[in-house]
Predict the structure.
Amino acid sequence: MGIIARLSEVKGHRYLLMAMKKVIAEIPDAQLLIVGEGPIKKGLQGLAKELGIIQNVYFIPAVSDTVEPLSVMDVFVMPSLEEGLGLSIMEAMLAGVAVAATDAGGISTLVKDNQTGILVKPADAHNLALAIIELIKNKEKARSLSSSARDLIVREFSLEKMARETEKVYGECLR
């Protein structure tokens, strides 16, 4: 599983690490890939050590192309406390990776609970862990959710549709 996001308090990484402790208790070989840079990196590394899970957590610098890190994730997790639309969630969905996320900001525009992913309340490490465990253990559910999520992204956020909608706005402004 993993996350691709800048390392800042608002992204909720600390709750993901706390959830990871519960995930490892249930699935000892689970691994977490944290991709990104930011001011709280050392603090997150310290928390992973304190929780006794550092051996299962990999910190990777920010990447410009998310294809490779997403290709090794079975679950994408976005534990944000606040969020706009969530570009990294969209990228994960398009890549066919099951998503567990918090119901913060615009995330619910993309992640419809038990339709295109699993939503939990922000700052809720316990239920975040349960969502992750469910997606790891229930491969059929994970496949179904990720398939629906990919369909949503292709249908609602394709380059063609975005260009068409942008042209429409410009046309209205010019009139």
About this structure: Residues 169 and 175 are 10 Å apart (CA to CA). The chain has one domain: 2-174. Residues 2-174 form a domain with the Rossmann fold fold (CATH 3.40.50.2000).
